[in-house]
Automatic annotation (TrEMBL):
Pathway(s): Amino-acid biosynthesis; L-arginine biosynthesis; N(2)-acetyl-L-ornithine from L-glutamate: step 2/4
Natural source organism: Zoogloea oryzae
SUPFAM superfamilies assigned: Carbamate kinase-like (SSF53633)
Pfam family, one: AA_kinase
Domain Aspartate/glutamate/uridylate kinase residues, every copy: 74-220
Designated name of the protein: Acetylglutamate kinase
GO MF, any single term: kinase activity
Positions in coiled-coil regions: none
Record's keyword annotation contains Kinase: yes
Catalytic activity: N-acetyl-L-glutamate + ATP = N-acetyl-L-glutamyl 5-phosphate + ADP
E.C. numbers: 2.7.2.8
Domain of life where this protein originates: Bacteria
Claim: Flavoprotein is one of the keywords in the record: no
Listed InterPro entries: AceGlu_kinase-like_sf, AcgluKinase_fam, Asp/Glu/Uridylate_kinase
Length: 262
């Protein structure tokens, strides 16, 4: 008498996760995602290793990724980590090919040494994309005097996402998401809500990116292993999802409609 193999519970769960991820992989194939990794240090080695693996996997299934990498860890370390997991990462700075250039900021907006992002030339990035590379960028830039200056990484990531018309800007930081006045995580916001939520224009660069055509902004906890895969390839946002005003309104209306009892 033949006996059928009993399904393994873990195997079924893994198969379900893969089945859930498939529509997202299909929808995002060839789309551009900008990842702003703003941790000051590596932190937990499991989360760090997960970052390299997740970036390699997402690149291999067809997402077009750019990482803005800042903090105390060398750019080469993240490049090496991604490549060890089978990706094809290449380390760059904004000085390479002069693709990131600074200009003198207006008096009322002067900070960071009186400089702001001026020119972003994505030609070099497009060349890397065409060859299947994942650019990992250190936010250094050329100043008007020809010197190399550090640029604000958050501003670079948002501006680059806008120039590339990215489908998503994903901000990875040591926090579970954006918080309200009571310190509670807000899981979904419109651009206007995010603008009013941030004290002293804290979220202004994210709002500008959305209004320039970026499809969505995700703010996620970089300390959590697998956070990129969970955020991109599953239904629920684990951090904060910020949508353009019109789309946010449509999503909210749809959610209310679907939750209404017949």
């Amino acid at each position: 008498m033949s006996t059928a193999l009993a399904p393994n519970a873990l195997g079924k769960e893994q198969a379900q996760v893969l089945a859930e991820a498939l529509p997202y992989i299909h929808a995002f194939h060839g789309k551009t995602f900008v990842i702003d990794y703003e941790r000051s240090n590596v932190g937990h080695p499991v989360a760090w290793n997960s970052l390299g693996r997740d970036l390699a996997l997402l690149s291999l299934v067809g997402l077009r990724l750019v990482v803005i990498h800042r903090g105390n860890v060398l750019n080469a370390e993240l490049v090496s980590l991604i490549n060890r997991h089978g990706g094809r990462a290449a380390g760059l700075t904004g000085v390479d090919g002069r693709f990131l250039q600074l200009r003198t900021a207006p008096m009322e907006a002067q900070c960071n040494g009186g400089l702001e992002i001026g020119v972003i030339d994505t030609t070099l990035l497009q060349m890397h994309f065409a060859k299947g590379f994942l650019p990992v960028i250190r936010p250094l830039a050329s100043a008007p005097d020809g010197q190399v200056h550090p640029a604000d990484g958050a501003q670079v990531a948002a501006a680059l996402a806008a120039h590339l018309r990215a489908s998503k800007l994903i901000v990875m930081r040591d926090a579970a998401g954006l918080t309200d006045a009571n310190g509670q995580i807000v899981h979904r916001l419109s651009a206007t809500e995010a603008e009013t939520l941030g004290a002293e224009g804290r979220n202004a660069h994210l709002v500008r990116a959305l209004r320039a055509g970026v499809g969505a902004v995700h703010v996620v906890d970089a300390r959590r292993p697998d956070v990129l895969l969970l955020e991109i390839l599953t239904r629920e946002s684990r951090g904060t999802l910020v949508l353009p005003d019109g789309l946010a309104s449509l999503v909210a209306t749809s959610a209310r409609y679907l939750s209404t009892d017949e």
